[in-house]
Design goal:
The protein is an alpha+beta fold and about 180 residues long. The protein has helices at about 50-65, 80-90, 100-110, 115-125, 150-160, 165-175, and strands at about 5-10, 15-20, 25-30, 100, 140.
Amino acid sequence: MSEFYSATFKSPLGEIYLVSDEEALRGAWIEGQANYKEGLIFPPHKRRIVPPLEQAREWLRCYFAKIDGAERPKLRPLCTPARRNILEQVCRIPYGSTASYGDICKQLHARGIMASPRSVGNAVAHNPMIIFIPCHRVLGTNGSLTGYAGGLERKRFLLSLEGSFLPFDVANARSRSKK
């Protein structure tokens, strides 16, 4: 059985709890989020900085400082294979962009993976790697901000940090263009 290690990272959104094994990041949760530390059924984690944790901290530092180029650690999320397929698709949403639950379903179907909007929503809601797997980039079909385990204010913050158009920005842009 692999050993697991943990560390924390102080972010503008609060403390992020990180868990890895020797090879990959296994989980990342913002303190106080809805599914905080969900899936941690392993023995106590050792408080030692192993390469995936070091890489995760550096990636987060660069992410919040808006510095491009930090290599994201290898991810091996603590979830079922079905959820992993959906979360891998979420990882394909480019920085500064958003996608709807329906978009993700269509993209999965194009890859031969059957998923419903409900299953996508469930996987996103239980994302064990907040920020690393960018579920904050998933919006409702009409472009609305939908639930986020970290809270809607954190979702707005992350989308704004990435320069994404928020739904109210799109609405304002449309109303300004009609004048």
